[in-house]
Amino acid sequence: xxxxxxxxxxxxxxxxxxRLLMVCQSPRLADRNFSNDCDTGSGTSQHRHFDNDSGCFRxxxxxxxxxxxxxxxxxxxxxxxxxxxxxxAAYSSLVQCLPRVERLQVFLKNPVTNETEADGVPLxxxxxxxxxxxxxxxxxxxxxxxxxxxxxxLQLRPSDPYKVLLLxxxxxxxxxxxxxxxxxxxxxxxxxxxxxxxxxVLLKQISVAYFAVRRxxxxxxxxxxxxESLISLCGELHDQDAATLELKVIRYLREQTxxxxxxxxxxxxxxxxxxxxxxxxxxxxxEVRFHGLWSCFKPALETKQPLFLEHxxxxxxxxxxxxxxxxxxxxxxxxxxxxxxxxxxxxxCLVNKCKGEQFSxxxxxxxxxxxxxxxTVLASTLAFQxxxxxxxxxQALLQVAKKLFTHLDDLTKLLREIMQEAxxxxxxxxxxxxxxxQDSDELVATVFDGITTNNKEVQSEIRLPKTQGIAGHVAxxxxxxxxxxxxxxxxxxxxxxxxxxxxxxNILCFPIKDEDGVxxxxxxxxxxxxxxxxxxxxxxxxxxxxxxxxxxxxHSLMYKKVIDIQTRNSLANELMMFHMxxxxxxxxxxxxQEGTPKVTVFHKDFDKFSFPPRAIQESRxxxxxxxxxxxxxxxxxxxxxxxxxxxxxxxxKKGYRNPPYHNWMHAFSVAHFGYLSIKNLHLTNxxxxxELFALFVSCLCHDIDHRGTTNSFQVKSQxxxxxxxxxxxxxxxxxxxxxxxxxxxxxxxNIFENLSSKExxxxxxxxxxxxLATDVAHHLRIFDLLEDMARDGYDKNDPKCHDLLLCLLMxxxxxxxxxxxxxxxxxxxxxIYQEFFSQGDxxxxxxxxxxxxxxxxxxxxxxxxxxxxxxxxxxxYVVLADLFEEATEVKExxxxxxxxxxxxxxxxxxxxxxxxxxxxxxxxxxxxVSSSKEDATxxxxxxxxxxxNGR
Length: 951
Known about the structure:
The chain is an alpha+beta fold. The protein folds into five domains: 2-220, GAF domain (Beta-Lactamase, 2-Layer Sandwich), CATH 3.30.450.40; 242-378, GAF domain (Beta-Lactamase, 2-Layer Sandwich); 405-561, GAF domain (Beta-Lactamase, 2-Layer Sandwich), CATH 3.30.450; 621-809, Catalytic domain of cyclic nucleotide phosphodiesterase 4b2b (Orthogonal Bundle); 815-935, Orthogonal Bundle (Catalytic domain of cyclic nucleotide phosphodiesterase 4b2b), CATH 1.10.1300.10. The protein is built from 32 helices and 20 strands. The chain has a six-stranded antiparallel sheet with strand order 5-4-3-8-7-6, sandwiched between helices. Strands 11-10-9-14-13-12 form a six-stranded antiparallel sheet. A hairpin with a 2-residue loop joins strand 10 and strand 11 (282-291). Helix 4 (83-97) runs antiparallel to helix 7, helix 21 (689-701) runs parallel beside helix 27 (799-814) and helix 26 (776-792) packs parallel to helix 29 (861-883). It is rod-shaped, with a radius of gyration of 53 Å. The termini are far apart. 36% of the residues are buried. Mean pLDDT is 81; it is low at 1-64, 451-458 and 929-951.
């Protein structure tokens, strides 16, 4: 009989298993007909009643056949549609299988919370229940002692005559526990083998049914829970701050995907820059920007497909770890597109799923579902934030404009203000501003930012060719240049970095243009402090800032022109007072009607290098100038009117003041040397007619209105001339040129009146270059070029050779007093040092320390003269002699004069009291010895007149 019963039981179990496989796909596939198929007859009635004594449900049934009991026990389990119903069915099924069990409690795992519970009461995590739930065998044991939680669950005392029945429910797919059923029966009873087998079948049936109802319930609960969370998230996205909004979205994604950390990388569509403002639960103090195509996120940006950790090369994974500041075990990056567009708005990144799990397709769908409802809000918030940022920048620009326009009176201060504000607006380390010099086509920087090489003082200015470097490229093209890696750019010159120790990482260089698009200058920013490079937003703000720069610089330059005009007017008034008396017409007529004498009238050696022009009386010098104009052919070639030439010469003579040295006689001496050079060096074979004409006129005009002081003194004393010309350099030389132009523009004095417009413009340009060449600083700048020309030979067809030769001839003429005999040169030295010492006295009165050569108490004249001859004069005449053999005589005279100064220095050391001796006394030392020395060397100078006209 037992064999038959178990055979029937096994058949029923196999049949029910097949039906339950269908239930696993859909619990509702089981229908009520199933019970009819299994029903073999009516059974005894059964009901459940509540036992007030025990507080548990008790089942009362009549004895029935085992197979009928098993059949009826399966029916409630098959009808269960959720875990709660399955728990009730387990009550019913167990009572039918084992009617004598009392005080039943069924603990099943909640699929949502993963907690094992019975009607909301969690399973205690200690005692006999907790020890048994992880086992797979049915257990019968005595009532446990205090304080086991089972006593409270079954309402038992340790002394009660009961046995405890423990039925653990295990998963068929794994060893994990699904729950446990606990009850009790009289201690006098026992569990038969048949009953135990029946219970095992029932427990397996409950396990199968659990998985059948768990998945739909879990999916429904999870979907509903996620939808509720998403709705709650959307309700919270009311912030106008993108970072706060990102924080909430990241928190939601982390909770739903069970990720340890996460972050959003906002995408700038135009440049594919990535911006991070929030990582995990932290809003970053400064946003992090980097170029997406240069990072490990490049595949996600290009393909717009999810990116997992295995897709990132091993050497690039540190980029993610650097962002999240943790070890990355697994990673998911989901590109999120803007609604209605293919452009990406962000990359949603999740890091390290809990319990070492891997991110799956479900996690991707969670992210996409989230942004399906939040991307619009995120895009709107970002747009609002950008507009707010733009508004703040606009207000900042207005404040910048206010600051800039308060410095229009001082271009240097204005440029410093521009540099400072540019740094502030773009968060950069350094800024340089170059203005374009239209005359020289050079970029000029006069204000500097940062350290200098070897801790030296900053230079007065830096000049760069317009076509050189990054600044030159921007000035030439007029377009902004944003360089993300300076050292990799071909236009960047890293020599300055190497010498200063400064490291240039990135550069933003933008043009400063006027309303017509003409480039006025260039501003160059270095090293973005709050990012790895300058952004497109920096480019926009720089372009807007450039407009204010242009307006302020243009107005500053215009303001300076106005001030210059006022200064010129002031200077003109001064000159008018000085030259109140006009040239009398009678003097002009007298000079013009005398006729032009021959140069030999003034001296038979007038056209020789050895002749000293200071030997001619000052009153006769205008006539001598007329004679030189005539002898050189200028009068005829350029159709000079006698009265115009006479008035011009008298005006030039009157334009000179009376300092000891730089007076009219100096100008006459310089013009005489120019005349000698044209005649004796045969310059007509080397220079054009108009160049020779310009050279001779420039010699006459080169020191008009000289004040007997140097350029540096004009600047130190803040004179009117310095205010007018110091920004251009060569203060006095520019003043001499300006006064020459004034004379030429005076009615009846323009000796260039018969030149064509082209020749007239060329003449003025030549005079400017030649007169400015008298600045010693200019001469020293070009001296290497002069030596090169002397070595390589003069090329008449090369315009540069023409320019260099004119400058050389002008300098040689300006120093020509050193080319005369010692008797003439020594007296000129007295005049020079008289003028120098006068300036030194003025500097002392101003509280300045004069140079040694201008300090009468410190100057050692012989040593100073030797130094001057060695460093300035002799090199000039050596180059001249190399170019023209006829100039050898001039060079030898200068070298002979140096020998005299060496002798004076030797004599002076014997007296050892140079500080108490005047220049005249120093020159008079050992004159007899000097004369005998001159005779011994065979250098004899015979002059018919020794009268020198030096005032």
